[in-house]
Design brief:
Blueprint lengths: L1 E6 L2 E7 L6 H18 L7 E3 L4 H4 L1 H9 L3 E2 L12 H15 L4 H13 L3 H17 L10 E7 L4
Parallel strand pairs: 3-4, 3-5
Antiparallel strand pairs: 1-2, 1-5
Length: 158
């Protein structure tokens, strides 16, 4: 499993999650990867973090951790469509991996890391700019994230 994040300024960190993720592990990932990504991407105050309604994301301990870190989180209604723009990046990564046909987990991880690092900032910027239109279409018009950082896990390979 992979966890990654991005903003309109480009891709953030991508890491391999080697075991079944728990709430504690998720908060560690955010602490060790989301915060450094926000710094490297030069995210200024006021950015909005978006993740889905996975139980690890909505757990009381996670919400409290995010609150203590002063994160603005885009609230996501339950049973809503998954509109997270990072899904577009996961899809591209999966297509690339399928074309490369890695023979082992090490090669798979290497391919993913290399491809992720080469995602153009322009692609990320377009995903963020069009995100507002998708939210409006699905009647989430109260959400106006101007500065945005999205993170999510993805399973690649089989």
């Amino acid at each position: 499993m992979l966890w990654g994040c991005f903003s309109a300024k480009g891709p953030g960190r991508l890491i391999r999650v080697k075991e079944r993720m728990t709430g504690v592990m998720y908060r560690e990932i955010l602490s060790e990867n989301l915060l450094p990504s926000a710094r490297v991407l030069k995210m200024k105050r006021g950015w909005v973090f978006q993740h889905d309604n996975d139980p690890k994301h909505t757990a009381r301990a996670t919400k409290e951790w995010l609150r203590k870190k002063h994160f603005k989180v885009l609230e996501w209604p339950s049973q809503s469509p998954d509109l997270n723009p990072i899904e577009n990046l996961w899809r591209e990564l999966k297509v690339h991996v399928a074309q490369q046909q890695p023979q082992n987990i090490t090669a798979l991880e290497e391919i993913c890391m290399e491809k992720w690092a080469k995602i153009p900032a322009t692609v990320c910027e377009i995903l963020v700019k069009t995100y507002r239109k998708r939210l409006t279409f699905f009647h989430f018009s109260n959400y106006r994230p101007l500065i945005f950082l999205s993170g999510r896990t993805c399973t690649i390979g089989g």
